[in-house]
C-alpha cells in the first residue's frame, strides 16, 4: 500500500504599509516613480546617514497586532540583519529579531473542510529592499532604490495550514483586515503584499515535521495555489524515490509552472543579527495600547453578520458589500438616508461591481456620494424613473457623481404618467399590429412582451413598463380587430 502524505504549510507574509513616507526617512513611498527619484542618503545607504523611525509604522503594526489577537512587546527594538546583495544598499536590513513588536496571535479561517485556527508566531517591522531590474538584451541588472526603506510588516505564521485552500483563506482574511485598518492596499501585483510559502510533507499520523522549503516570487493567489500543489508533488516524489528533501529557498516561475533552487535556506545565525546601534528601543505604554484598541474599526465578519441580522440580507449580499470597507460605508450611509437596505444592496452588489470591473476601478476607490444613490432609490420608488432609465442615471452617478434628479431632467428620462397619452399610443400599437393581436387572442400570450416593447419604443423608454403591461392587458380584453373589407 502506498504511503499517505500530509502537507504542512507556514507563511511569511510581507505587507507594505500605505504611509506617505518611508520607515526611516522622509522620502515618498508612492508607487511607480521614475527609478531612483524617491531616495536620500538614508534609504540609499550612504555613510554617516542616520535613520529616524516613522511613528505611523508603529501605529499600523500595533493596529494589525490588535486585530489579529497578538500580544505586544511593550519594549521592542530594531536589529541589523546582515547580508550582501545588490538591492540592499547598507549591506544590512533593519528588522526585528529578538524583540519584535507583536507575537503569539491567531486568526480563524473557514474553508470547505471546516474552521481552523492559524497561529501567528510573530509580527515585526522592517524596511524593504530595493528592486533589481534585469535587462536581458544587455545581459545586465540595474538597481532601483525607490522601494528601499518602504515600511513593511512581516507576519510569520506557525505551520498550521494543510492545503492551498487554507492558505488562500488565511491570506484573504489577512488582506481584508489590513484594508479595513487602512494600513495597506495589499495589491499582490504591485508587491504591496508578498507571501513566502514554507512547505514540507510528512506521513499521515506523524507528528514530526519534514524538511521544509521556502517558495518565493509568488505574486498572485493563483500562483500560490499552483506553487503549493507543485512543491507538494515534488517533495512526495523525492521521498517515494528514497531521496532527501533539501532545505532550500526555491523560486517559482509561474509561466513555466516550475520552481528551481535559488540558495540553501539560511538560519538566523547566518545573518549575524545584532541590535541596531542607531535606533533606540520603542516603549509602548498603556495609553498608546488603549488608543489603538479604541480606534479599531468593525471588521468584515462582524459587519456582515450585522447586515444579515439587522437588514435581512443574504450571506452572499453581505459578503459582497463587506469585501470593501469603502463600499460598506457607502451602503450604510445610503440606508441611513433612504431606509431601503435591500435596494441599496442591489445597486451596490450589481451595477456598482459591474461598472467597477468594466472601468478597472478598485472598489476601495469608488467615490460617488451616498446621497445620490439614496436619491436615485427614492426617484424609482416614486415612479419617476423606470428600471431602464434608472440604470442610465446610475452610470452617471458612478462615473461623474451626478445629481440624479438634475441628470434625469436634463436628459428627459423622467417617466411619463399621462394615462391619456399612454392610451392613445397603446391603441395605435394595437392597430398597427393586427397579426400580433390575433395571436394573443388565440392564446399565444407571450407576444404581449412584443407589444409592450412597441409602446415603450413609441414613448422613447419614458413609460413605466408595468403600467404599460397592465394597460395593454386590459385593452386587449375588449379590443376588437378591425374588419377586413376584402
Automatic annotation (TrEMBL):
**What is this protein's name?**
Aspartyl/glutamyl-tRNA(Asn/Gln) amidotransferase subunit B
**Subunit-level organization:** Heterotrimer of A, B and C subunits.
GO biological process terms on file: glutaminyl-tRNAGln biosynthesis via transamidation; translation
Name the source organism: Catenibacillus scindens
- All residue ranges annotated as the Asn/Gln amidotransferase domain in the record: 329-476
Q: Name one Pfam family in it.
A: GatB_Yqey
Q: What does this protein do?
A: Allows the formation of correctly charged Asn-tRNA(Asn) or Gln-tRNA(Gln) through the transamidation of misacylated Asp-tRNA(Asn) or Glu-tRNA(Gln) in organisms which lack either or both of asparaginyl-tRNA or glutaminyl-tRNA synthetases. The reaction takes place in the presence of glutamine and ATP through an activated phospho-Asp-tRNA(Asn) or phospho-Glu-tRNA(Gln).
Which molecular function terms from Gene Ontology are attached?
ATP binding; glutaminyl-tRNA synthase (glutamine-hydrolyzing) activity; transferase activity
Q: Which InterPro entries match?
A: Asn/Gln-tRNA_amidoTrfase_suB/E, Asn/Gln-tRNA_Trfase_suB/E_cat, Asn/Gln_amidotransferase, Asn/Gln_tRNA_amidoTrase-B-like, GatB, GatB_C_1, GatB_Yqey_C_2, Gln-tRNA_amidoTrfase_suB_CS
HAMAP family from the xrefs? GatB
As its record notes, the protein acts as a catalyst of: L-aspartyl-tRNA(Asn) + L-glutamine + ATP + H2O = L-asparaginyl-tRNA(Asn) + L-glutamate + ADP + phosphate + 2 H(+); L-glutamyl-tRNA(Gln) + L-glutamine + ATP + H2O = L-glutaminyl-tRNA(Gln) + L-glutamate + ADP + phosphate + H(+)
| Similarity remark | Belongs to the GatB/GatE family. GatB subfamily.
UniProt keyword list: ATP-binding, Ligase, Nucleotide-binding, Protein biosynthesis, Transferase
Q: Please state the Enzyme Commission number of this protein.
A: 6.3.5.-
Amino acid at each position: 500500500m502506498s504511503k499517505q502524505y500530509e502537507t504542512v504549510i507556514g507563511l511569511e507574509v510581507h505587507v507594505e504599509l500605505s504611509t506617505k513616507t518611508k520607515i526611516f526617512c522622509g522620502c515618498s513611498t508612492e508607487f511607480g516613480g521614475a527609478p531612483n527619484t524617491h531616495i536620500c542618503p538614508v534609504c540609499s545607504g550612504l555613510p554617516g546617514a542616520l535613520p529616524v523611525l516613522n511613528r505611523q509604522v508603529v501605529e499600523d503594526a500595533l493596529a494589525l497586532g490588535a486585530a489579529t489577537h497578538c500580544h505586544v512587546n511593550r519594549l521592542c527594538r530594531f536589529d541589523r540583519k546582515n547580508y550582501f546583495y545588490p538591492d540592499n544598499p547598507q549591506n544590512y536590513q533593519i528588522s526585528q529579531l529578538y524583540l519584535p513588536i507583536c507575537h503569539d496571535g491567531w486568526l480563524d479561517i473557514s474553508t470547505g473542510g471546516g474552521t481552523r485556527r492559524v497561529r501567528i508566531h510573530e509580527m515585526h517591522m522592517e524596511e524593504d529592499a530595493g528592486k533589481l531590474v534585469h535587462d536581458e538584451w544587455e545581459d545586465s541588472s540595474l538597481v532601483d532604490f525607490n522601494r528601499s526603506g518602504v515600511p513593511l510588516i512581516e507576519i510569520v505564521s506557525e505551520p498550521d495550514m494543510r492545503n492551498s485552500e487554507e492558505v488562500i483563506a488565511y491570506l484573504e482574511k489577512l488582506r481584508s483586515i489590513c484594508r479595513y485598518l487602512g494600513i495597506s492596499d495589499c495589491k499582490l501585483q504591485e508587491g504591496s503584499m508578498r507571501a513566502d510559502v514554507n512547505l514540507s510533507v510528512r506521513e499521515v499520523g506523524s507528528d514530526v515535521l519534514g524538511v521544509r522549503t521556502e517558495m518565493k516570487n509568488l505574486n498572485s493567489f493563483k500562483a500560490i495555489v499552483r506553487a503549493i500543489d507543485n512543491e507538494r508533488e515534488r517533495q512526495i516524489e523525492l521521498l517515494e524515490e528514497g531521496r532527501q528533501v533539501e532545505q532550500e529557498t526555491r523560486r517559482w516561475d509561474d509561466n513555466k509552472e516550475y520552481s528551481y533552487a535559488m540558495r540553501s535556506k539560511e538560519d538566523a545565525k547566518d545573518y549575524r543579527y545584532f541590535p541596531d546601534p542607531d535606533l533606540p528601543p520603542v516603549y509602548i505604554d498603556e495609553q498608546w495600547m488603549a488608543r489603538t484598541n479604541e480606534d479599531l474599526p468593525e471588521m468584515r465578519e462582524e459587519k456582515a453578520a450585522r447586515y444579515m441580522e439587522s437588514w435581512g440580507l443574504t450571506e452572499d449580499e453581505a459578503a459582497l458589500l463587506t469585501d470593501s470597507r469603502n463600499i460598506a460605508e457607502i451602503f450604510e450611509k445610503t440606508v441611513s438616508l433612504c431606509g431601503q437596505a435591500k435596494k441599496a444592496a442591489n445597486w451596490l452588489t450589481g451595477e456598482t461591481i459591474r461598472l467597477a470591473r468594466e472601468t478597472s476601478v478598485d472598489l476601495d476607490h469608488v467615490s460617488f456620494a451616498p446621497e445620490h444613490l439614496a436619491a436615485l432609490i427614492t426617484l424609482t420608488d416614486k415612479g419617476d424613473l423606470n428600471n431602464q432609465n434608472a440604470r442610465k442615471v446610475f452610470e452617471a452617478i458612478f462615473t461623474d457623481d451626478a445629481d440624479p434628479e438634475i441628470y434625469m431632467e436634463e436628459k428627459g428620462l423622467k417617466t411619463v404618467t399621462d394615462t391619456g397619452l399612454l392610451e392613445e399610443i397603446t391603441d395605435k400599437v394595437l392597430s398597427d399590429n393586427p397579426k400580433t393581436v390575433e395571436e394573443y387572442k388565440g392564446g399565444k400570450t407571450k407576444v404581449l412582451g412584443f407589444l409592450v416593447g412597441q409602446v415603450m419604443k413609441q414613448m422613447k423608454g419614458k413609460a413605466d413598463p408595468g403600467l404599460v403591461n397592465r394597460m395593454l392587458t386590459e385593452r386587449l380584453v375588449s379590443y376588437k380587430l378591425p374588419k377586413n373589407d376584402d
